[in-house]
Amino acid sequence: MDGGGGKRFSTDIALIGERIARVGDCSGLEARQRIDARALVLAPGFIDVHAHSEQRWFEPRSSAGSLAQGITTAIEGACNRSFLAEQAADLRGSLRLNLALVAPAQREEIERGACGISVRFGAGAPSEEALRVAKNAGIPLVVHLRDRERDLLAALDEAIALARRTEMALHISHLSYAYGEDRALVHVALERLDAERGRGMPISCDLFPYIADDEPLGALFPPAMRALPRSDETTLAAMLHARLQYGERWGRISLRAVRDERGIAELGASIEAIAARRRLSPERTALALLEELGAETPLLHRCLNEDDVAAVLSAEFACIGIADASYPFTEDPFRLAHPRAFGSFPRLFARFVRMRRTLTFEEAVRRCSALPARIFGLRDRGEIREGAFADLVLFDERAIADTATYERPAQAPAGIHGVFVNGSAVYGAGMGEIAYPGRILERP
């Protein structure tokens, strides 16, 4: 499946160095190694359009979680994030660029190769100069919507208005409708985007294929609480406000990190279950956790509807972004990663291709490769063709699946037999680890 979305075909592929040298009969060529992959599918390497490993650049880390699911290219810095944020107090409108090497939105950084410019509404006004330079560079405007809860359509209109004013291509980060009761709203949003596309505006979006999002513990509380004493009546009133907002959802919000072994029993448990264990109300339990663990403590919130996720994935302009960092397979005993960091791309094929039939295999491969490469102007990637970089994934279409769960996220996917980055084999089934660059795959 060459990434273009067309019909699959059988052929040989020859690699020389970092590139694909031939697509066609290679039986007469000499080779240092031959891989018999007749029972498998070869696809372009998957492109994660919404990676967040910029959060972990200065920590010892591995790209194992991404490589094992077939990701060979990651676009960093969406959602207005940058590893240099603390060094850039004046961010010229709180803009960040999508490539990892840059922080403030300045002309020279765009010219150095940024593949998009990220805007988060509510975090400051965009720099007009940065937008002008980005437009001239032909890179897209990547927007984190201001509100995916109560006011999705208004937030969408805000993003469209900015793209129309700047005459830039628009990419919506993790398009979804959280906590919503109106099941038609996502379809209305997609129709609105289709209408703009019909008028000539280039629009795309991304989403991770799970119903659970993540958020920090502090997001449960109204902003005013941060300046209040923790024990007065005003604080209790604010907690009641939180109850009105979250209602019965306490059972769908779980704790992803604890401080030490004393909190292990609560790791992965819902706020509702922790409250029952502590014999407190969910509100008082959430407040106690805030005091004990801090506002940045990660939560897992099952706030999306899978039918909505499928609706977004059915749009021809939607691709996949894990919205997370890449992690090693060594589990942190006091912290749970989101399973999307280990299984997003295989889950697309297992759940939304084989099970729900939202997409065909060929179309799903296009969404993972050629489509994101075109959106972000990644030359010579996202396709299997002569001269392109040899970023490749070898998988069994009957077996490819995510095995990561909310309780045990650090699990390698099934059905992926090999991953190549720039012609080097970096992952293979049965290795049990990420290979060193240049390590040769055993024959499947």
UniProtKB/TrEMBL annotation:
Keywords: Hydrolase. Gene3D superfamilies: Metal-dependent hydrolases, Urease, subunit C, domain 1. InterPro entries: Amidohydro_3, Metal-dep_hydrolase_composite, Metal_Hydrolase, Metallo-dep_Hydrolases_sf. The keyword Isomerase does not apply. One of its GO terms (molecular function) is N-acyl-D-glutamate deacylase activity. Its EC number is 3.5.1.82. Coiled coil: none annotated. Pfam families: Amidohydro_3 (PF07969). It is an enzyme of class 3 (hydrolase). Residues 233-427 form the Amidohydrolase domain. SUPFAM superfamilies: Composite domain of metallo-dependent hydrolases (SSF51338), Metallo-dependent hydrolases (SSF51556). The keyword Hydrolase applies. This is Putative N-acyl-D-glutamate deacylase (N-acyl-D-glutamate amidohydrolase).
